[in-house]
Amino acid sequence: MWLILLSICVVLVLWFLFRTVNRDYWKKRNVVQLNKDLFVKFLFGDQSLSEVYKDVYEAHPNEPYVGAFLNTKPALILRDLQNIQAVLVGDFESYHSRGIDFNDNDILADNILSISHYERWKTIRQKMTPLFTSSKLKSMTNVIEKSARDFVTMVKNKKEMREKPFIALYTYTTASIGASVFGIDTHTKDAMDSPFLEMSFKSVEPSFLGNLRVTISSLSPTLFKILRIKVFGDHEEFFIGAVKKALKARRNNPQPVNDFIGLCMELQKAGTMTDKSTGYEVEPTDLVLAAQAFFFFIAGTDTGANTMHFTLLELSSNPDVLKRLHEEIDKKFEETNEKNTYDDIDKLVYLDMVLNETMRKFPPVGLMQRVCTRDTVLPVGNLKVQKGVITVTPVFAIHRDEKLFPNPEKFDPERFAPSNAANLPKFGYMPFGEGKRICIGSRYARIQVKVGLAFLLRSFTLKPQNYQPKRFEKSVFSLRDPDAKYELILRENKD
């Protein structure tokens, strides 16, 4: 407790000093400036950070960007899509950092793919990308399908899971990712019996202490390191132990298995991971690979569950869409005699449209942050951006912009019909990010969510309601509404 109080006092002192120094930072550069610290507004308010940015975005419709402060650091809320493209793709070398600092004693956090160390990030990402090729995903489909079948059985048999649907969905995403990482016996083991559920839920659940850690890291990386703060320290022993145990078991039984641990085995056999363009090297130790598996968990369980959750909420509010989706799913399941391959699920076109529209209204990650790593210039407005300035791409706000998506509050999957693909605004739809730091697991996430929803809706329908959220949970990056509910009704003759 004393450490928390000391941190708060130091943060407040630093906040006051930096605000005094930077008081007119954006005014001097002829940029519209907000005098409130947006992160402080989030920390002590009742909105998610994505909603805070959305308010700023909508309040300045004629500006290419808005100057603000995040923990006293100068920040730009980007509004123009050309500038967003420059930050995420065109001038990536100047904006490669997410500005998220970790400590080297934080084994899990300091090795995951959100790290700011460019050479280390690039080397690890190059070697992890092969896990998500089409061939690898096809080989995982049986495991994901087994998870989906067990998920539906669980929902049928346990009333409490129907009463708390978000928990049920979280159980499915955790179990299916756990199965894809460590493998399961698809003939005997119940995939829903996952030892990782509590860990994955707690690791991303919003909390004041978690937000305080982010505040200290952003405001004073030096203090963050001095205090040796760990972001995921509570999960180190359990998760690293699980990965080491899995690797040891595979070494004793070296049969090739197409899952995450199988890829880890291949990487370790290949030796040092090297970026050929720079010569930078990373040793594929058990600890480094455990961090990658952990990131796969925390990035996939929460975003997958949220996407499924919001999809079901919207389907319960749009019976015509639900009816058409039921027809597509029923037809496919009847054609395949209830046994679907990767290609079968991939051909559920209307389900894809529904998911795309869900992720437009409720993007898995509501904002993207980048820190300028060298002085550069934004193309629209010709603004000189100094090293250290934070840029924010307000994804949630962009996805709800009526100029980009007419009638944005309406749930309309037809926006994403194949015939309308050319009409989508470039860099105006970014559910998985964009550019070189686009979500590495986006293809896995899509097939995981599609399989789960397809199996669930094959057996269940939804009681009509009118979902209109006023606020989302206080989360730094995500849009979450875990307490929202819908009534799952068993479909006749589909049991």
TrEMBL record:
It catalyses: an organic molecule + reduced [NADPH--hemoprotein reductase] + O2 = an alcohol + oxidized [NADPH--hemoprotein reductase] + H2O + H(+). InterPro entries: Cyt_P450, Cyt_P450_CS, Cyt_P450_E_grp-I, Cyt_P450_sf, Insect_CytP450_Detox. Its EC number is 1.14.14.1. Keywords: Endoplasmic reticulum, Heme, Iron, Membrane, Metal-binding, Microsome, Monooxygenase, Oxidoreductase. It is found in: Endoplasmic reticulum membrane; Microsome membrane. It comes from the Eukaryota. It is a peripheral membrane protein. Its cofactor is heme. PROSITE patterns: CYTOCHROME_P450 (PS00086). SUPFAM superfamilies: Cytochrome P450. It is an enzyme of class 1 (oxidoreductase). Its main location: endoplasmic reticulum. May be involved in the metabolism of insect hormones and in the breakdown of synthetic insecticides. Belongs to the cytochrome P450 family. This is unspecific monooxygenase. It comes from Loxostege sticticalis (Beet webworm moth).
